[in-house]
Amino acid sequence: MSLLLLLLLLSLFSGVSAEVPLTRTHVTSVPGFNGALPSRLETGFVRQKFFAIMFYLTMTRYVTVDEENGAELFYYFFESEGDPGSDPVLLWLTGGDRCSVLSALFFEIGQQPNSKQAPLSPKSVRSCGPLKLVIEPYNGSLPRLHYHPYSWTKVASILFVDSPVGAGFSFSRDPKGYDVGDVSASLQLVKFLSNWFGGHPEYLTNPFYVGGDSYAGKIVPFIAQKISEDIEAGVRPTLNLKGYVVGNPTTGERIDYESKVPYLHGVGIISDQLYELLNEVSKPHILYKKCIYMSLIPKFESMDRKILKEELGILKHRPPRPSIQCVSYSNYLSYFWANDNVTREYLGIKKGSVDEWIRCHDNDLPYTKDIKSSIQYHHNVTLNGYRALVYR
């Protein structure tokens, strides 16, 4: 008699629910990508329950972090292409406001060779994750993906999480679940990690790092401190925390914005000429020229008008169409890839959870910035002997 049938019979006679061990949701291929994925991809695990009398099956696909409001975080887990049994495991978060971690997967993690040439060719591929979007004029079909050989997944397993609740494909059944902040969202991520590693005990001995960029860089050291405190307190499962990494991080301090270039100019490190030049480049990518993210509607040819009409029919929050020469054109393509019904089916997106995938929310969901400064957490964690990497 199978374990599944045995549990079912037990539940029928006992009148209580019976849980089946976790079943992981493996994705063997994704739309737009030709061929096998570079490594194993997991987008959630399933917990199955059988109930007596009612006799039905329920499945929880994401990781629940707020039972009261039904808030669940969606994730993408790419196993290392090297030695997943011993390679580090990295939690990676992206910034905001409430940007989807799909941005990190497609655009951020890894090295980008010949980045100076990236804006010059419409056929070039501009992104930095294990998968990246092929930059080509959008024609109404599903955008294509291409393998990125310089991803960090070459040497580490990466857990990309849509956080806070409301980012990407993460959602809450009760609207109250979207009302989070720096502290509560960080604690939800600590709970997420406890649940995730509880379902993946084979990774507990792997070196573990917390990472993030931009605004996520503000909460990464806070999360690292909470994990280190749990380790000291003997909380199970015990993560093998080694340190954290933050890129272009926000700290909450006044010096975060607008002070870098004026300071360097004021103390004579950069010349007047360079100072004027730096004011004309893109802040996120100083090697690129500033791009207009939303331009006036041009006079389209007949085909362009047809494509635009199709795009507006698909999405309620239509993304601006930048020039294909802009770095942001890949962001534009991501909307059509993530909102395609076939993509959602392959990733196992729960129907009715997220009506429309939006790369970044613009203050349309409540969020409290209640970590005024992350400097104390940087100080505490590094004093406890954990390694830290801060880069720009």
Automatic annotation (TrEMBL):
SUPFAM superfamilies the record matches: alpha/beta-Hydrolases
- Per the UniProt entry, the signal peptide is 1-18
Naturally occurring in which organism (per UniProt): Oryza nivara
Q: Which InterPro entries match?
A: AB_hydrolase_fold, Peptidase_S10
Show the GO MF annotations.
acyltransferase activity, transferring groups other than amino-acyl groups; serine-type carboxypeptidase activity
Q: What is this protein called?
A: Uncharacterized protein
Pfam entry (one): Peptidase_S10
Supply the PANTHER family for this chain.
CARBOXYPEPTIDASE, SERINE PROTEASE FAMILY S10 SERINE CARBOXYPEPTIDASE
Q: Which UniProt keywords apply?
A: Signal
GO terms classed as biological process = proteolysis; secondary metabolic process
Superkingdom of this protein's organism: Eukaryota
Q: Which family does the record claim for this protein?
A: Belongs to the peptidase S10 family.
